[in-house]
């Protein structure tokens, strides 16, 4: 005799599978994007990588599921990482953010017109980036 599972049990199974946190990685140097992804690959995250902050912003605005975290280089040609984060937070104020920089110090986020959660100077240790991300996203 075949037994059919009820719909609520099916829904519970789906609800138990939480989606992996989505991280936007934004840097105008492709190698640094790959290094950041490599540093975080064992954390159970999904990634979208962007060489251009304007492309990242367009993707952010169009995305149904917003990223949980934006990790952005500070100094990029057409838009700074701070500008990108500020524009993203206009529609998603709870967005977590990390700014990376090899040209500026942590004081840039203290003077920023937008709240940035963390700053990390370049070059950085992979474990340092992974630790910051775990601290912001939990786990």
Order of helices and strands: HEHEHEHEHEH
**Number of extended strands:** 5
| Average of pLDDT | 89
Strand content: 15-25%
Q: What oligomeric state do the depicted chains represent? A: single chain
Q: Ends: how far apart?
A: 44 Å
**Structural class estimated from helices and strands:** alpha/beta
| Helical proportion, percent range | 40-55%
The gyration radius over C-alpha positions equals: 18 Å
- Uncertain segments of ≥5 residues (pLDDT<50)? 1-16
- Please describe the biggest sheet, giving its number of strands, its sense, and whether it closes into a barrel: 5 strands, parallel
| Strand order within the widest beta sheet | 2-1-3-4-5
**What is the 3D shape?**
globular
Discrete helix count: 6
Helix and strand topology:
Layout: H1 7-16, E1 22-26, H2 30-40, E2 46-50, H3 53-62, E3 69-73, H4 81-91, E4 96-101, H5 107-110, E5 118-121, H6 126-137
Parallel strand pairs: 1-2, 1-3, 3-4, 4-5
């Amino acid at each position: 005799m075949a037994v059919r599972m009820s719909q609520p049990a099916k829904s519970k199974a789906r609800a138990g599978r939480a989606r992996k946190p989505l991280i936007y990685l934004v840097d105008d140097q492709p190698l640094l994007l790959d290094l950041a992804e490599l540093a975080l690959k064992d954390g159970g995250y999904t990634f979208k990588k962007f060489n251009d902050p304007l492309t990242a912003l367009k993707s952010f605005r169009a995305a149904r599921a917003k990223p949980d975290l934006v990790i952005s280089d500070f100094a990029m040609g057409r838009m700074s990482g701070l500008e990108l984060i500020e524009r993203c937070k206009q529609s998603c104020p709870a967005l977590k953010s990390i700014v990376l920089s090899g040209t500026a110090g942590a004081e840039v986020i203290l003077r920023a017109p937008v709240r940035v959660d963390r700053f990390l100077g370049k070059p950085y240790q992979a474990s340092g980036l992974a630790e910051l991300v775990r601290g912001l996203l939990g786990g």
